[in-house]
Amino acid sequence: MSNKKKLHFPNDYKVGVLGGGQLGKMLALAAGKWGLPFYVLDASKDFPAGAYSTEFTEGSFKDFDDVYNFGKDKDIVTIEIEHVNTDALFKLQEEGVQVHPNPQALNIIKDKGLQKQFYADRALPTSPFRLYANEDELKLSIKDNRLIFPFVQKTRTAGYDGRGVAVIRSADDMDKILKGPCITEPLVDIDKEIAIVVARNASGEITTFPPVEMDFNPVANLVEYLYCPADISYNVLTKADELAREIIEAYDICGLLAVEFFLTKQGEILINEVAPRTHNSGHHTIDSCQTSQFEQQLRAILNLPLGSTTMTSPAIMVNLLGEAGHTGPAIYEGMDKCLQTEGVHVHLYGKKITKPFRKMGHATVVDTDLAKAKEKATFIKNTLRIISEE
Ligand SMILES: Nc1ncnc2c1ncn2[C@@H]1O[C@H](COP(=O)(O)OP(=O)(O)O)[C@@H](O)[C@H]1O
Ligand SMILES: [Mg+2]
To answer: Which CATH superfamily is domain 190-387 in?
Structure first.
């Protein structure tokens, strides 16, 4: 357990991950490539990572005792979701377990208010923001003309996949206002949204994956297509890459950090938010880069040499979402046609139940010609339907 003993790769490393969703599953698959002992904590072994872990512990990653008891006999504990019990992680760290990302950074990142303040304090570019204790305080601010339309409201904690974000354009949207402690930001005039996955190990080595461009479904506020390489200028690429490196160092994170940026119509680069883990915008790396983001996270937390992030092919990733109006056991209609298409790599997460807009899997299309990849990605989007008979 102690980090003082000499660890021999891979068998001496007991890696524990908090969270057993699709990110945990893909991390487990990367660990499997090396035969790395891999342990998972989450509510149910039926979750995506359940069948792929060396051992699965049923419990809550939000509960102090569950996290502490799970982590105490591990060498390294990492996460696939940021909303975990960090008090237990501090205790584990004190007792010699390596915790990546460090719990101080996690506490900042999982609170959007603290996260924005972190960038403001370091003069890192982000949109201006204000903090509110609750929705009443926010409404009072509107009434007093201190807060003007349009603005974006975000809950400080527990937002995920657009669920903690509301765009308030006018007084007509007042019923959309979310409850609880929150921040507001001006509505940014976004030209493009890009993301960079950056990795850092304990030796201080840093690598970045090429920026990806995200295309959102306006209804679900979920990423629908993701393009890599992003269609951006060399200047923007260099600047965003530098920022990603600076941010991971500022947080002193070993592991991965996905940095989401807004490129504004006025030509600015703003940091939107970060996730200290593998990220949807890095899924394409499994099929299009020398090293996947999942292997890179393992390399980074184990302090192994980081892998090459060079692309082997341009790629487009499509999230495979549950069809609207369907809840129940999942049926993948049109799968044969997708599997028949050259360059299409289908990843299903193994979730038995589909729900409207639930992330059930993703497909990565690789093609040397990005325009052809776009055609195929659209074909998949229109052909594959995740439905339920019930
Ligand atoms: N200030 C803003 N101006 C315009 N659009 C925004 C703003 N903040 C967020 N959005 C939109 O909402 C999406 C989700 O917001 P984000 O803060 O990334 O929350 P989540 O945790 O759900 O990913 C962003 O990717 C962007 O499309
Ligand atoms: Mg986001």
So the answer is: ATP-grasp fold, B domain (3.30.470.20)
Q: Does CATH number 3.30.1490.20 belong to domain 128-186?
A: yes
CA angle 258, 201, 271 (to 5 degrees): 25
Q: In the chain, what are the domain boundaries?
A: 15-99, 128-186, 190-387
Q: What is the pLDDT along the chain (390 residues), one digit of tens a residue?
A: 445 567 788 988 999 999 999 999 999 999 999 999 999 999 999 999 999 999 999 999 999 999 999 999 999 999 999 999 999 999 999 999 999 999 999 999 999 999 999 999 999 999 999 999 999 999 999 999 999 999 999 999 975 555 799 999 999 999 999 999 999 999 999 999 999 999 999 999 999 999 999 988 777 666 779 999 999 999 999 999 999 999 999 999 999 999 999 999 999 999 999 999 999 999 999 999 999 999 999 999 999 999 999 999 999 999 999 999 999 999 999 999 999 999 999 999 999 999 999 999 999 999 999 889 999 999 999 999 999 987
Cβ-contact 177, 169 below 8 angstroms:
no
Nearest Cα residue to atom 14 of ligand 1: 162
Which amino acid does the sequence have at 60?
S
Return d(Cα 250, Cα 274) in angstroms, integer: 12
The token pair that represents 69 in the structure block = 């008891």
How remote is the CA of residue 161 from the centroid of ligand 1, in Å? Answer: 9
Which of the listed residues 169, 272, 281 should we mutate to test ligand 1's pocket, taking the one with most ligand atoms within 8 A of CB?
272
Mutating to test ligand 1, I would choose from 151, 222, 262 the residue with most ligand atoms within 8 A of its C-beta, which is: 262
C-alpha 162 – ligand 1 centre gap (Å)? 7
How many Cβ atoms sit within 10 Å of the Cβ of residue 306?
18
Domains 15-99 and 190-387 share a fold: no
